[in-house]
Design goal:
mainly alpha
Length: 75
């Protein structure tokens, strides 16, 4: 009996706090606009991050296969 009362008293403020948040689920226009230059820089960073490892693996495929590479071939 005491456990149920305790659970209700502890749970109620947490639930009420979540209900009083004041955030809307409806999307609207951005509150702070992001400049085009910042979008380009962010896109370039994301592109580099996504493709760096696959490009690295493809360029070093001969090493992974165990083939010898001369330093003259790299230049």
């Amino acid at each position: 009996m005491f456990a149920r009362q305790f659970a209700r008293s502890v749970g109620s403020p947490a639930i009420q706090h979540l209900q009083r948040r004041g955030h809307s689920a409806v999307a609207g226009p951005p509150q702070v606009k992001v400049s085009f230059a910042e979008k380009v820089v962010h896109g370039a960073i994301m592109f580099t991050g996504w493709f760096f490892i696959p490009v690295w693996v493809l360029t070093h495929m001969r090493e992974y296969k165990g083939q010898n590479i001369d330093s003259k071939q790299l230049l």
